[in-house]
Amino acid sequence: MRKFYDDLNVHRPATRNWVRKTMGTLGVAALLALPAQVVAQGTAMSWTGASNTNFTYDANWNPAGTPGGNSLTVPVTTSVTSNNYPVISGSENISVYFLENAYNADPTLITPIVVDLASNDVSLSINRGNTSKIDYGMCGLTINKGTVNFGKDGSWRWDENNSLLTVNGGVVNFNGQVVLWNNKTGAALGSGQITINGGTVKFASTLEPIIRFNETREGGQIIIKGDGKVFYRGNWDCQSKIDNGCINGGSEYSILKTYDAATGYTTLSALPSSTFLIKNADRQLLTAGASGTALEMLKTARVTGAKSLVWKYREEGAVTYTSTGVTEATYTPSFANSGVYYVICEAVDANDVVVQSQEVEINVGSTRISVSPYFNQQYIRVNGVLHPKTASFTETPVSYTWKSFNRDTKEYLEFDGAAGQLTVSPSFTSIGTYDVFVEATFNDGRVERSSVMVYYVEAASTTGKDMIWNGLFSTDGFYSGNYAPVSPTFKNKLTINGSGNVPATFTGSVNDTINALTVAAGASMNLSMNSGVVFNVRGEVYVHGTLNITSGIAHFSSNFTRLHSAGSLLNVSGNAIAIVQYMKMGDSDTPASTNGGQLHVTDNARVYNNMVPDRISTKDPSYSMMYVDDNASIYFPGNSTAVVNTRIADAKIACAKAGYVPAVVYDKSIDSTRIYSRLASGFAIENVTSQIVAQNTETEAAYTLTNLESNDIQAIKWYYGTSLNGPWNELAGSDNQLTYKPAVPVGGTVYVVAIGTTSQGVQVMTNNVVALDVIAVTLSPASQQVLVSGTPVDLTYSINGGLTAQDVAWYEKINGEVDYNAPISTTATFTPSTAALGERIYICLANVEINNVVTTVESSEAVVKVVEVITSVEEKASAQLSVYPNPSKGQFFVDGIEGEYSVEVIDMKGAIVYKNHFTNGGAQEVAIDRKGIFTVKVVSGADVKTTRVVVK
């Protein structure tokens, strides 16, 4: 009988007869009779193979159920009741919590697991290990097709004798480390093996990918054959493991290690033993007379068995090679004169066949020409300019120019207007790789080139390059030469560390954007853009060191700004503004963890948080701290006063300066909660807890003033305003009230302060503010209506604060009367009669639940004037009066009046702030320099018309 594991290339001994059984052998009735149970996530399940080889079939597990998300064990063959081993196939992604392939010293007893998914787009994910760190791991696992993801939790072990992982195809992703040797002593010593016949194995972690190689005995090996490849994220120093055979290609292949600095990946691949190849064939950039990096032949059977070999070179343009005289397997290039040289190794192999390796370019620069600043490689975008280059010479050349060599098209070009120019700014119109150099002719007739600079020219839209600060040239954070790789900072990812010139300092008058920012532990960065100039970070911001924002606008516009470490420090000072999407003050959601940095906001700086900062450590006062001092402010989104007050009580928001305490108030105008600093001993309101109150109704709790005597306060009055910046309107009956329950005559968010007068006549405002939510009933239309008799008008009401009325009642009185008539309507919309002539005033009383108490709130007045017909100039003027724009910024027009008329603008205290008489009708401009709500009174003959205007 043919063995199923042979069909699937399962590398098992032929001593056990494994029989393939498929679901096709079961009848439909039998399938329907099998239990279909979903087992809770994390449930321990063991393979039985009771029905077939289908890994996801419920009845093949004990307890029966779906294996997805659970902890799975495949026991040794003696514990499997059938010959059915698990085959993971199909076109659906599979994710399990834990999967262990039980080990036995007898390899014939290890149950194989085969992964043969429909394509590499389908995945098996093994998320984490158990407390034993996945001991023995997947000791009988074979992967033929699909993507297998090993999670980052724990180590993945093939560290016992005969524990094997075989990869014939597909993609294997390791996010943790692999163990190939159990590091024990004595008879228990064991080591496993990973064989890669095809497909790719990728190590995503930057940790050492393979640990505990057994370098003294057979086992503990990675064997790469055919088109199998290994990729490692980073420059993996594994050549010694290749040389001692821990990583090998068996008897038929040799291992080639390459590193691509552009992608940041190391690649291990297998080459046939007949290969004749220089294994480190990257181009070298040298100066004349200097030694380069030794070139080394890949140790294959053809190289080690060669009868003779010699290293040769040719110059650019030549077709024949000249011997270097070096006959060893390694050669260190060195050339006395500048130019481009091509080096090969030539041998006579064991069969007397002459064989040549590939060419290696050695580009040699002149010692008589220098370029500053010099970078051997740099990135630039199409049509971009990185920075100018300047040539210098040890002796005056006869002539010189700047040239580029397109490495893709193999063309040399001279930069326009570059002949005889010491300084040029290289720019390119096409994507590609270019060598840039100075070519000069000297008095001795020699034509020499400077050391070349490689320009990688990218598309203008290229973003996201990882750039590491080295500060080689200056502290200029925008200077590309201060980073590796050398590249424009725009829309790239920056990591600032403590290398070179520090701190990295960003200044300028042009908005700039980067993709992500990390300030490493022990490093510092200064952000000092011009006023109003934006430095935008589109991705995450990690501050492990110190970030100082002293001017301009820092906009951390998406994801998280993380102050993870105890040493994380974000300072915002001067007139700087920081806008933060989401600040995290620690690296854990556990409040008691010992982590979290500090935010210091001083001077006139402002920090706006679009979300409430979280991950606040409560374990120690030095962690997760926000400090606000001077005239600075920190803003939380919406009305976050409750959260802020809790953090102030927990000493997580404080003032660094002695004698000052944080204060908090909700700013309705920007829908944010402001945190600021106030002098603890200053003239203040003792408790500024916000209250909800009806218009013209006293607050339930009183507010008390403090520190009057120490601040020489002799007299006091209380005021209200609709903005934190005023204007402030006096509250009636508040004179010298140390304890006061304000009754505010306007609705919405209203701010209350007290103003004291010292013995010297100096007025002092309290250094904190009370914010009240004042519930008001507003009528529409609110202004006076002049209507012809019989013209209908609808009056409606609205209530602020998101509240609704339980019931309403409308009242009416004739203008001049004292009392309102009994309720004339209880509907939401009221349509008063306009049959009778005259002027009537209407109000609406609404019963609204405020603070769990039903309160009657009285509306503002609506005036309706009914006339028989508009015949007189006076009536027409009154009927057509309009004020625009409304609201305004202090300048508005009064319009709709014919003939002469007078205008008065009256503030909320009854004072006339503007008065004028106009002899011509029509629109007339009015200008006042105060903010607030004002009454506009227009007198035209015997007619008096009033309306209101809001000045912001």
UniProtKB/TrEMBL annotation:
InterPro entries linked to this entry: Secre_tail
Signal recorded as keyword: yes
Swiss-Prot/TrEMBL keywords: Signal
Signal peptide segment: 1-40
Annotated ranges, domain Secretion system C-terminal sorting: 883-951
Lineage: superkingdom: Bacteria
NCBIfam families given in the database record: Por_Secre_tail (TIGR04183)
Protein name (database record): Putative secreted protein (Por secretion system target)
